[in-house]
Design goal:
90 residues; globular; alpha+beta; two-stranded antiparallel ribbon; 31% helix; 13% strand
Length: 90
């Protein structure tokens, strides 16, 4: 999960909101289409699953990178001893 990669959430106010930094609509569409394809693959069992991987897309260079990520055995969100139950407070 994302929390395995970044165990602590950034402090409030340390990252700009979308309304401040802006959003490139076409990029949202491209990533959304990619996510929809991956969900269909998972549901149907077709192709290769991306479970355990992080896909990084550089829209300025039109490059994708795939990085394998191992689960953190002490992850506060997805491990057996997880203690985060409500994401709104974290």
């Amino acid at each position: 999960c994302y929390r395995c990669l970044y165990p602590e959430a950034p402090p409030p106010g340390s990252t700009p909101m979308c309304s401040e930094a802006g959003v490139l609509g076409a990029l949202c569409g491209a990533i959304g289409s990619h996510q929809a394809t991956e969900i269909l693959k998972e549901i149907t069992g077709a192709g290769e699953s991306l479970a355990g991987s992080l896909i990084i897309f550089d829209g300025l260079r039109t490059e994708f990178r795939k990085i394998k990520i191992k689960p953190d055995p002490n992850c506060k969100l997805c491990s057996k001893q997880a203690n985060i139950k409500d994401l709104s407070a974290h």
